[in-house]
User: What shape does this take?
Amino acid sequence: MRIRSVIVAAVFIGAAQASPALAQPQSATATMTVSVSTSAKLTISSSTLTFADANPDLVPQIAPAQGALSITAKARATDNAQVVLTVQADDDLRSGLQVIPASAITWTASGTGFASGTLSKTAPVTLGQWIGSGSRTGSQTLAFRNLWTYATGTYTCVLLYTLSGP
Amino acid sequence: MSKAVWTAAAALAVFTIAVPAIAQSTATATVNVTVNVSARATLDLHGTNSVTFADADPDTTPSIAAPALTIDVKSRTSAASNVTLTVVSNQDLTSGSDVIGIANLTWTSTGTGFAAGTMNKTTAQTVGSWTGSGTRSGTVTLKLANSWAYNAGAYTATLTYTLTAP
Assistant: This one.
């Protein structure tokens, strides 16, 4: 009886001493690669603009019914690259055979980097320009020059806005 | 026998995160423009709405001229439409029971499209005619044939000018 007790105790003592040894500190490296491509996104508050008829003596410059356009230009570009927003008319304002030059439409602009201008059907006109990536918001207030010399009609054209972020 | 328990560190790992690349670095948007030009017309007789002929010796002043009347005609119409300015008197020149035939009142004019004529109390007479939209300005000088046959009196008539721009 006595010898058995001693043996059991010895087993327990031995077990307590053999606690799991902590591993030596290990290190590893992880290499992360993030690919960011150039991209551009353009948002305009209205897809239509309507200029109502008015007396040229009283309203020499007609504002559109929709008011000023709110424009948001988002671009990811290479460092120090130029980001440019332009606008161009697809044609003069036309009503059947009658024509009003696209240059009858002008605009003023607000917001950093945005610029005023006169519409053209032959070349894009700069509406805004910035350096590098970012999100820019501004407004464009268009106006139609109202003259007595226009023939009656419903004139239309399409404005093409292009945001380029190389 | 102690039994060591080793804990192995994580093995070497490589992480790659690619931000989904938006395909384009150019963004576009279109805005449809509509301009409504309706028919309208305005007639402006500058300075005065009354014409007075002073008395004069018929021998020395066979034709009495009134101060020239400046007329502005503004109209917007369909292309190739006729724009016409006419005048008609409501009556002969009348002073009580005395009458001077309205045909004794004539006029000369200046300005493109303006024409001379003789007053009439039944049929409107053309003062000016043009084609299409625009602004036109000219002068009309009324003249009264002076005669010893007229009875003394203050003769009056009302002239109505009408601008038509279909």
Observations:
- Chain A has one helix and 13 strands.
- Residues 1-19 of chain A have pLDDT under 50 and may be disordered.
- Helices of chain A lie at 2-17.
- Chain A has one domain: 39-164.
